[in-house]
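Technical annex B. To support the medicinal chemistry partners, we prepared a structural model of the target in complex with adenosine-5'-tetraphosphate, based solely on the information shown next.
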Amino acid sequence: RPRLYSGMQPSADSLQAGNYIGALLQWREMQSSFDAFFSVVDLHAITVPQAPAELREKTRRTAAQYIAAGIEPSKSTLYVQSHVRAHAELAWILSTITGFGEAGRMTQFKDKSARYGQDSTSVGLFTYPVLMAADILLYQSELVPVGDDQKQHVELTRDLAERFNKRFGEAFTIPKAVIQKDTARIYDLQNPTAKMSKSAESDAGVLWLLDDPAKSAKKIMRAVTDTEGSVHYDRENKPGVSNLLTIYAALTGQQIGAIEDEYAGRGYGDFKKGLAEVVVNEFGPVRERANELLDDPAELDRVLAGNAAKADEVADVTLADVYDKIGLLRRV
Ligand code: AQP
């Protein structure tokens, strides 16, 4: 089975609907046909400030949500990035073949550093894409499912892999990004031109996977729409309604057209009620399962440790080969 790598940052207590629809649903689907590595990327999360005790808890919670959403730790390798030391080690090696200017062209860094200001922007945030390249290349991954905002990082990963292979000899598989369909992109309920995000400034537009169902329903009922009153998809002119349709379609597997037909001649109130029901039905069991897993953190930690050992096995082979190829003296 071809290798696949993807990950998410443990940057909040709960994942949000965009993470679920844009990533977890695809991962779940892909895990049978691929040898998949899914990581909770805590080393990436600390490129912006994190409170230590909270980070630990968020890491567990993120892993629990992967499992609750259907990622099976016996099928896929589901682990915590910092448990596998090779990530940080390979990132260092790759940073020595990354151009300063090349890294400086990454638009996500430009956006994020503008948000934090120069004094609060860490060097880690700057080298974030190099760590991501290490994540992917360690496992000889062929495919990397990501949102389109990560496309540039996967391009950099390919450039670094090709450069290394050319300079030192074949060590890496050249990966390909699998960009999620536009219909899998979810926007903020209150600000439907901005993507839904764990770190949104306001919580009102974010549907959390672990939220109380009544709260999620309320957020949907309050979602921004328009004054037209007709349920149809038009991303440009009706971003709010289009976003709700996208969520509805993604969670039910229905075509957008069929949902439009179902709600033809009915108001937004009815449509939102319908969507609230869909969301509660889908997220409810995930929330329950995640909470069960979190009730027994020792068992969850054991599962993660076992999977980290599986990841180590693959990662260590790549890292040893890389060390050899660049001429580091072997420790006997
Ligand atoms: N709104 C979204 N619609 C579709 N997919 C999304 N993803 C995130 N938001 C949406 C996908 O979820 C995965 C998580 O990636 P991440 O945790 O590394 O960070 P992110 O993409 O920056 O997601 P967030 O939720 O906005 O986190 P923060 O606030 O920490 O930056 C990726 O596959 C992403 O495409």
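Notes passed to the chemistry partners:
The pocket of adenosine-5'-tetraphosphate is lined by residues 8-9, 11, 16, 18-19, 21-23, 146-147, 184-186, 195-199 (CB under 6 Å).
DSSP finds 13 helices and five strands in the chain.
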